[in-house]
Amino acid sequence: GQLDTTCHAFVGETVVLPCTTTPPGELTLARSRLYWQIDRKIVHFFQNGKDSLEDQDKTFHGRTSLFLDQMKHGNLSLKISNVQLHDEAEYFCIYKQTENHQTKKSKIKLNVSAPSRIEEPPTPSGQSQVCSGSPTDVPCLAVLLLSFLLPVLLGLWHL
């Protein structure tokens, strides 16, 4: 399978791995399954309209969630909180509809970096890194640095 997108996160952050169905429409969640996995490791499993985490890999326990309110509209993205170095991998988002045996699959690569030694202001609580499939997007880190440095530079310019 070809890579759909690549996401970047730092250790300790929350990241959203994107996965959507096309064309968007009302999904019948009660008759569908959603697997998020790395090779044969279950990262998150959803079936019959609810999470089914009995077979979830223990390293992800309590750190993954889906956007339940948006799933019926095609948003199958996975949120991973408190990202760890060992979370770096190629993730597969596999959506299966049981009534018509239709399967949709996408692959998302997650790159994880250790936090830099430079002291940076803490991220506001609840803020997540969200990745998208467009290679022209400015990386999250660059946007964060600009949003921090620009007011500082403008402040010095007025001195």
From TrEMBL:
Native source species: Orthonyx spaldingii
Name of the gene this protein is made from: Mog
Subcellular localization: Membrane
Gene Ontology cellular-component annotations: external side of plasma membrane
Official protein name in the record: MOG protein
GO biological process: regulation of cytokine production; regulation of leukocyte cell-cell adhesion; regulation of T cell activation; T cell receptor signaling pathway
Domain annotation Ig-like: ranges: 12-109
Pfam families: V-set
Lineage, highest ranks first: Eukaryota, Metazoa, Chordata, Craniata, Vertebrata
UniProt GO molecular function: signaling receptor binding
